[in-house]
Amino acid sequence: MKTYILNLFALCTLFVLSACNKSEETLTPSEIVDTYSVPQGNNAFDPTLVNYYQKYGTYILYKFTEKDTYWTPTGWKKPVMAASGAWSAGGEVAAADVAYIPAQLALIQSKWFGFYSDKFMKKFLPTKILLCSKVDSVTNGFIFGGPTVVYVKQTKKVGAFYNYDNIQVNYGDASVSIMTAAETRIFLAKVNLIFIQSIIARGLSQPTTEFITTTDYTTTMTSSAQSYGKGIIISYFGPSAQADWNAYITAMVTYSTVNLNTSTAITDTSPVGILNPTKDVNGQIKKRYNIVRNYFINEYNVDLQLIGNAAKGI
């Protein structure tokens, strides 16, 4: 469930001798609590952001702080360089240029929000969506050959990133107006995968009883072939129903039906070919795939596989 953060106020009445003086104070909670409000300005697009909040309970922000972006209960997630020279993984962002937010919102609606029902969005959207002109993934590169390994900061433009209670979305700049079909498809694939990964990270989607009871997670397995034979598509080493459920969801939004039905070696541990008889030797994967897919169709009127198809240009 989303966290709804409210302003808390109290009226403290102080009596000094015979005089009475009332003052309004803001209560300070012991934990970190932020407050947000929309609209953030008087732009033509601000009513659209208000409408999204009223529909989904999510704040879509173009004015935000580093704390809004990087704070989590387990630590600050902004990439930093350690004493060794190595960079911590994460994303670096910059706020959107307001001139391009209308086009950015149209992109978000078309390639992200448009795949989901209102019920799904109310359930699974995070507290905040941050509109950005830059979202860079930060990783380490290495230079070898000297007495010590030298770390090099590497950045890559990505369509979206997430931290805890927010998803940061790119293309709030001039590049939104010149996106190619390939770039648009890459954005679609990335932003929807990030959305699903954020749902998984927040523990919001649990496997159904039907899904859990259609296989055996207790018997020790020693190969991918055994795992596939039971309809389990994650690693055969210590699998769980939750991790397996997550893997099915991720496969649907990442790969097309063509990819999933392509014949490939049974030793291939990617989702490619999981619906082909080479991997699905007992038909269990297809059975459990349909359980997951139909659950989201019946419960939320959302076909997750349409996202994977669109991401691959189908």
Descriptive notes:
The structure is a single chain. The chain has 314 residues and is α+β, with helices and mostly antiparallel strands. It has two domains: 46-198, no CATH class; 209-311, no CATH class. The chain has helices spanning 46-56, 66-70, 101-111, 118-124, 181-201, 209-213, 224-229, 241-254, 257-261, 284-300, 305-311; strands spanning 9-16, 19-26, 59-61, 71-72, 75-76, 90-95, 128-143, 150-157, 160-163, 166-169. The strands form three sheets. Strands 3, 6, 7, 8, 9 and 10 form a six-stranded mixed sheet that branches. Strands 1-2 form a two-stranded antiparallel ribbon. A two-stranded antiparallel ribbon has the order 4-5. Helix 5 runs antiparallel to helix 8, helix 5 (181-201) packs antiparallel against helix 11 (305-311) and helix 8 (241-254) crosses helix 11. It is globular, with a radius of gyration of 23 Å.
Q: Helix proportion of residues, in percent?
A: 25-40%
Q: Would you list the SSEs in sequence order as H and E?
A: EEHEHEEEHHEEEEHHHHHHH
- Strand percentage: 15-25%
Report the end-to-end length measured between terminal Cα atoms: 33 Å
**Cα-based radius of gyration, to the nearest Å:** 23 Å
The total beta strand count reads 10
Number of helices: 11
- Give the overall shape: globular
Q: Mind describing the biggest β-sheet? A: 6 strands, mixed
Q: In terms of structural class, how would the helical and strand content be classed?
A: alpha+beta
Unreliable spans? 3-33
Tell me the domain tally: 2
What average pLDDT do the residues reach?
A: 89
